[in-house]
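The record is given unchanged here:
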Amino acid sequence: MKDNLFCVTVDDLIFYPYPKNIQERLDTLREKNIKATERFISNQRSSPETSPTKKQAVEKCKDTNTSWKQIEDERLPLQNQNPGVIAWAKIAGHCWWPAMIIDYRDCCLKEPSFGCQWIMWYGDYKVSEVRHLEFLKFYKGLEKMRDYIQNTVKQCYLDGVLQASKDYCSRLGCSTDNWTLDNVFEYFSNMNNIHVPYNQLQVSDSNKIYDKYSDEIVKKINEFKSKPNVDAERKNDIKTSDALHRVISGECTVEKLCLKCLRFSKDKMEEHPFFIGSLCKECSYAFKPCMFVHGNDGKCFYCTVCAATGTVLICDTDDCPRVYCTACLKFLICPKAYDDMLSEDPWKCFLCRDESKQPANMLLHPRLDWKEKVSTMFRTASNPASKDINFENYKNQKKPIRVLSLFDGLSTGFLVLLNLGIVVDVYYASEIDKNALTISSAHFGDRITYLGDVRDITKEKIQEIAPIDLLIGGSPCNDLSLVNPARLGLHDPKGTGILFFEYCRIKKLMKKANKDRHLFWLYENVASMPSEYRLEINKHLGREPDVIDAADFSPQHRLRLYWHNFPFNPYMPLFQNQQDVQDKLTPNLNRKALCKKLRTVTCRTGSLLQGKAEVKPIMMKGESDRLWITELEEIFGFPRHFTDVKNLSATNRQKLLGKSWSVQTLTAILRPLCFYFKCKEDETSNNISALHKDISLLYRGKQF
């Protein structure tokens, strides 16, 4: 094979699609996998279901007399499984038992596993994680278990049934203070008392955290929170760490200690981004992607110090996503102030407090410059400078810019270039979303040339549209994010992660077609990807990314990784323009923002709700209100009514915005291009020229 190839063509070899024999083998394996999966599902349905979770308190008798059809009729629907709902739940090996569904955040628990709910059992008031299929409507469960209730001698079980019934019926307007189980059965024997609008009367509509629970459950939740479980494994690591003991005794400095594995390393270590200390190479590899994995409540899944899961303390600052495992808090950060911290309400974490308000006698101290550390921690070495860029050459020959935008979305790149006053010679865009194409066409018309699907852009098409000065793109992130447990990764041909290699292919072809003309490029993706994905992207792009949070330029948190070859730092103070949510609200209507920065806005409408209680972020005339879609457009940096095309609903407009780039962030990143390309001579460009003058003092005569 080697003898039959010229060196000039080796780089053009692409083994996708796969060779025929490889593809046939993959198809055969896929068919076998499908059949095996079908057999597994069939066996699961025909055999008793098992669960790894076991309640280790009171013995519950086995229930073997329930048909599948009967369970379907009695089961509590998933849409009604909300915090505060009283139902019957079951775990393997035990009978049905009354319980209340609780919010994991209210008890400092980890987010429930996929398809599960956290509950507090009536009677012994312990908590368990239960599959969503193992819930019965309350009155159905009472009817089902009536004979067992009347014959059992387990007092804990009887007390639990009575208290659950009293809580349930009190919500229906009954006075239950003096009720016994006889009163309960008498009440539910009347069919008119059963068919009540179930979900409406089950839980209070109040936004207050505890209004959804009964008084007894609130009492038990508070007791549970006052004595949170400390992760035994992490506690043991801290207690037995010789390296930590040497740091505490003063033999060594904390800067030499890995705060995750609590060991010293002979190899070069990286600085821990949040606390004074370090991370060894292996721990840094595991820690980095965990920093940005956030749940639907906007809070991180993993401890800020060690990236552990389990029982965590959550910062009550609305726009802070940080959480801390109880082991790190109690034994590593501030042992003497631990009990006092548990009683603080609200509790602000160490990164949100002023230095004067930090607990006394802390073993670990937060970094004052942690934001800067986070933004640079993915860079283990300086990215190579672009030696082929000469500022003087561009200054003498400033031309309009030629752009190719892949995964173009709402044409954010074109809008940013217009805002910067850069003259656009031609703007090619690859996009397949019909709604996005309609919006883009409505605003920019024939100023954008559409190329269709990125996979259909051929080598011949690249040669036809060359030269290109700027290549930008961000392939879909769903199959790369740690938040998605069903992610398919970078290489699965059925997923969207593989589209990254289309960006690489086109970038490579474009550099060759450009010949001696320099190509600026930018690639963006989610910060919460596993380290192996990030390192592979680094390898293909030849760069390490910048971590940039849109909150530094706009009113929302939107952490992303940006790979690029621009010579300037977007975090230069000259580029920053702080904005809060209040700045974007519709004026003259007395609308007040309850938070300064929104958590990351996604395609989900629920992502607009804020804080642990997921409240609406706006107050208007004394009532809570959602963000209006026109305000959301401004928060992303678009003009009002930008997506108001084609009678699109507010939900569909949010979906498009949720997949787009932040205009303000992209403006900060692309601003250096004003040095190299022709700008309009109007007020906008005059302002930019003044900016050029200031920055050029820093870079005069340098080559990048």
Remarks:
- DSSP finds 25 helices and 19 strands in the chain.
- Residues 71-226 form a domain with the SH3 type barrels. fold (CATH 2.30.30.140).
- Residues 48-65, 197-201, 683-704 have pLDDT under 50 and may be disordered.
